Amino acid sequence: MKEKIRKEINKDIDDNISYLKEMFKDTSDIIFREFYIGDIKAFLMYIDGMADKILLNDYVLESLMIQSKDVENLDNIEDIKNNILTVTDLTEIKEFNKGVNSMLSGDTLMLVDGCTEGYVIATRFWPARGISEPSSETVVKGSRDGFSETIRFNTALIRRRIRDTRLKLVSKSLGERSKTDVVVTYIDDIVNQDVLNKLNKRIDKIDIDAVLDSGYVEQFIEDSKWSPFPTTKTTQRPDVVASALYEGKIAILVDNSPFVIIVPTTLPSLFQSPDDYYQRWIYSSVVRVIRLLSIIISLTLPALYVAVTSYHVAIIPTKLAYFIASSREGVPFPAYMEAIIMDVSLALLMESIVRLPKPIGATIGIVGGLIIGQAAVSAGIVSPIMIIIVSLTAITSFTAPNYEVSSAFRLIRFLLIIASAFLGLYGIMIGLIILLIHLIRLKSFGIPYLAPAVNSSTEDFKDMFIRLHLKFFKHRPKYMKTKDKIRQK
């Protein structure tokens, strides 16, 4: 149920104080401060720990209580604002709910006797984590700063990279109870207006008690909730966000979250790393091709092993067939069950490493993998070649820069193993065809998910499978349908 807050501010300040104290009774962190500006009674309310007390003491209370004695003819609030109050950010409000919501966000609410308006003083100052390098998106070259949980720090990191008057940061509030600050960021003369309109409609439809992280917003605005593939992109790197904004995309920043959402997104963009653009184009292109081949190997290798050993032994060399048969001698499970057991074990090991404390996580991962693999082979549960295949699958799957798309391919890998267990190579082909059809039909805010591979200009291929020299990036991506299409003259 929505909280009902009295709309109007009463001229009688004592009535306003009684109302606010009743609203926030049994709340020890709310500070109520009554004082006098000359002969005029005034009132401040703020949250201890979220408001800057030094600013309040030195530039608000000292000015209003002491310096006001030297001002003659102090008759109205305009004199107080213009001649006494020495703060830069002061907002006049005429509704109680706006003042209360601002106070709950860290600002200070000031009321003056005889006035039907209140004033919000910008005093937000809370404990914040410093700027540090994102642990999940490390690069060889490039900046080392990353987003934190404080939204104003994050907008400053973006503004530092885009010193353009046309950069827009539109603030919104989500969550009926949490009232979380959300900022929609875009460059006005570049952004695709249709994408912006769709995004605003989806955000405005969000009606939930609390938004605790950007993941909440991400799930509400995504195109297909049944698809394993993410139709939005998240990042902790300000340079990635700035690059996306220059391409006509939109960024959504959520307070209390270091992850920024970028929309729309495409599958090829999820395989791109910031390092691709900071290093020479030849090396970046080779690495990108290797990355693509690695994803294909991690997706299909276990399923190919199951299909070949179960149905199509004749297509492999005789010596290799004998070696596989001898290595599987004594294994009680069929090939598909062997692959599933090891793939599940790998997933469990990776999940446990994520949850363990960092000092012991890496050690447990290495020791656990070796012990489990050796014990499984010694016990005859799996064959040695299966250990090799699972190891190759794990190594190649780590080349995907985006964790969410890597998780999606892990799920598809399970399904392909099952398909190969029933139909062999035909099952793999059918599974890949179904996957391709799904990806072709998938869209992100109206943009094809496989763009620029589909419905796009061949000019966009300069940044898909390979990355050409920067001098070839004359135009912004055609599939984005931006207003300003020229990037480089």
Outline the structure in words:
With about 500 residues, the chain is of the alpha+beta class. The chain folds into 3 domains: about 15-120, no CATH class; about 150-265, no CATH class; about 275-445, no CATH class. Helix content is about 45%, strand content about 10%. It has 17 helices and 12 strands. The protein starts with 12 loop residues before the first helix and ends in a 41-residue tail after the last strand. About 30% of the residues are buried. InterPro entries: Spore_Ger (IPR004995), UPF0353/GerABKA_families (IPR050768). This is Spore germination protein. Keywords: Membrane, Transmembrane, Transmembrane helix.
Shape, per Cα inertia axes: elongated
The major β-sheet equals: 5 strands, antiparallel
Question: Beta-strand level of the residues, as a percent range?
Answer: 5-15%
Taking all Cα atoms into account, the compactness measure Rg is 30 Å
Helix content: 40-55%
Describe the strand arrangement of the main beta sheet, using strand numbers.
1-2-4-5-3
Total E-strand runs = 12
Give the count of structural domains: 3
The low-confidence parts are none
How many helices? The count is: 17
Helix and strand pattern: HEEHHEHEEHEEHHEHEEHHHHHHHHHEE
Which structural class matches the secondary elements? alpha+beta
- State the separation between the terminal residues, measured CA to CA: 56 Å
Mean pLDDT: 88
Protein name: Spore germination protein
Family: Belongs to the GerABKA family.
Keywords: Membrane, Transmembrane, Transmembrane helix
Pfam families: GerA (PF03323)
